[in-house]
Amino acid sequence: MSKEVHPSKLFTASCMALIVTAMTFAIRAGILSQLATDFALSDTQLGWVNSMAFLGFPVAMMVLGLAYNYLGAKKLMAIAFIGHLAGLLLTIYAGGFWSLLISTFLIGFANGSVEAACNPLIADMYPNNKTTMLNRFHVWFPGGIVIGALASKFMTDADLGWQMQIGIMLIPTVIYGYLVFFQTFPKSENIETSTSTNIKSLFSPLYIFMILCMTLTATSELGTQQWVGRILQESGASPMIILALGTGLMAIGRQFAGVIIHKLNPIGVLLLSSITATIGIYLLSIATGGMVYLATIIFAMGVCYFWPTMIGFIGEYQPKTGALGMSLMGGAGMFAVSIWNPIIGNWIDSARAEAVAAGVAPENVDLAAGQATLGNMTIFPILLVVAFGILFAMRSKIQKAA
Questions:
Q1: Cα→Cα distances 78→14, 85, 97, 121, 236, Å
Q2: Is residue 231 part of a domain?
């Protein structure tokens, strides 16, 4: 093992771990229909399975975010590797609803461990370029979703079972595990490592406000993406191509985030993003055929900068919250998505029943249900327009206080 710290190699290891995290989201979205058929699951039950991934994530981020100052990034990454390995293997050999719940929770816990370790690690390694480097790191969430979505589509089209789709994620898992175990990690020097200071800083009104906003940004982005296969399967467009297109554009946008953030600052980026996301989700709720792809492009532009800019905002404007503040921010977002997933699944079931009762043609029932559900989901970015509008109006005071 090298004793010299190589930030570029650690950044690569972090990105590879995030690719695994993203692939779990994409491939799970791609195999939901197969799971529903093989295990006779309703959409509400699928919602509970999905929610375990989003629940495991904040549990890891809250627990490990608190432990970051004591354990360090390397041990947290090791926990992530073990969780991914165990969760993926248990999913492959799942026998039904309850085993899927357990294995999906483990994967979610591993995903949260990656975020809990890597966000503060990157902020610490690049103290003068936090938001830009966090956006570049988070390129690989949409990037990994593109990889997972295309892999899921091609493997499904080739009649390869969902177990094999889960299995391919073991490859990048082993790669990042190797990178983690054979690199030296730096000591924290550029982030606040006093746990008492971290905890006290969490009660800042601005931090609490941003936590609440994070629950909405995460649900706007991930709540929509996770259900794309079920919601848009009858829209006349390929759900996995929609997912790959949208997340591919997000990856490109995040790669060049530095220029945009420099011109608009994080608060301006968040306000513009919320407006665009509202338009995108609304268009998805009414579009069919080729127009779905245009709506997807607008949606992707809207949610592109949400997650990394929210984390970067905390790093820049609430630095005393340290690794704990970043972890709880991400954890709050995922916890919200875990709560909303069963509700979204229930929206689909209810909208489908209403469509049948209204006499909608059988071939159009799923489309009507999906569009109605997306219509409900526009409320999340609409609330963000109001919240970030308030933040934008107060931006001069926030910048002076930082």
A1: 12, 11, 28, 14, 43
A2: yes
